[in-house]
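Exercise 3.2. Students should predict the tertiary structure of the chain below and write it as structure tokens, then compare their answer with the key that follows.

Predict this chain's 3D structure.
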Amino acid sequence: MKATWTIGLLGWLAMSGATFALAADEPDKILGYRQNLMKSVGANISNIAMVAKGEVTYIGNVAANARAIRDGLAAADPLFPAGTGKEAGKTRALPSIWEDNAGFVKALKASQDAAEAMVVAADTSDLGQIQQALGVLGKTCGGCHDDFREKQ
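Answer key:
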């Protein structure tokens, strides 16, 4: 029944000439999207860190957190186009992202690789492997932040 309703609605929209506005990739919107994505990555890293430190016992959730980090960092590549620095709004992204884009891409790739290793470690549910992978991931994130993100 639900499928019939959906098909009927889509047919009605098509026949009525309804149009849909496509989102424009305005620099300020890209900036907001990027910030949301990176906050999500940070939140998932924080969750894994809480498990790694023994603050909570949710080791069963670490694999999902690790996949979210990996997927978030994989989606970050196109979110740093020219024009999405401070000229687009409030951001801690430094001009060095665009001035040394090859260095930035290399740093992001290192974090993406470390995130993939975090997934592998998380899938073992071995706390020692998780802690080790988290340390490597933290260093790659920090390395990118050191050169490409303004300090608070």
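Discussion points: The chain has one domain: 26-148. Residues 27-52 form the longest helix (26 residues).
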